[in-house]
């Protein structure tokens, strides 16, 4: 395997790992649309032969049903993932006890050294 192919594969895997849920939603929506289109072709062929006056109405009903079901699928699976949520580590909790890192940062010698470095 060449270095380029390795880098490309690694980048694709990292991208897929980061956006795994959104990619899954998109693939589910595409699969849903393809299956319903495939099923409708059978219904449309039957209606065209036996009841041609109902073909247009069936197409309209199918369109409303498919888009309604697709909207429901995307809304129901996990809507909180599509909205921007704050990162848990960025939320400040005032009732939490100070951590060891906070205690070390408050030490006098560390504060003096930090101040001397910052004010050079």
Notes on the protein architecture:
This protein has 120 residues and is an all-alpha fold. It has a domain at 3-83. Helices cover 72% and strands 0% of the residues. It has helices spanning 3-18, 20-50, 55-77, 100-105, 108-118. α2 runs antiparallel to α3. The protein is elongated and about 90 Å long.
Task: Give a short summary of the structure.
The chain is built from five helices and no strands. It has 120 residues and is mostly helical. It is elongated.
Number of continuous helical runs: 5
Strand content: under 5%
What's the N-to-C terminus distance?
A: 51 Å
In total, the number of strands is: 0
Please describe the biggest sheet, giving its number of strands, its sense, and whether it closes into a barrel: none
Helix share bin? over 70%
* Rounded radius of gyration (Å): 28 Å
Structural category is mainly alpha
* Helix and strand pattern: HHHHH
pLDDT < 50 stretches: none
Shape: elongated
Mean pLDDT: 76
Helices and strands in order:
Elements: H1 3-18, H2 20-50, H3 55-77, H4 100-105, H5 108-118
Helix pairs in contact: 2-3
Summarize this structure as a short list of keywords or feature phrases.
72% helix; 120 residues; mainly alpha
């Amino acid at each position: 395997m060449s270095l380029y192919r390795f880098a490309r594969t690694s980048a694709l895997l990292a991208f897929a790992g980061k956006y795994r849920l959104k990619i899954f939603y998109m693939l589910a929506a595409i699969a849903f649309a393809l299956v319903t289109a495939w099923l409708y072709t059978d219904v449309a062929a039957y209606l065209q032969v036996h009841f041609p006056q109902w073909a247009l109405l069936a197409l309209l009903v199918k369109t409303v049903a498919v888009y309604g079901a697709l909207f429901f699928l995307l809304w129901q699976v996990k809507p909180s993932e599509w909205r921007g949520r704050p990162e848990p580590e960025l939320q400040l909790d005032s009732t939490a006890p100070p951590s060891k890192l906070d205690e070390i940062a408050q030490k006098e010698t560390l504060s003096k050294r930090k101040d001397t470095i910052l004010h050079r």
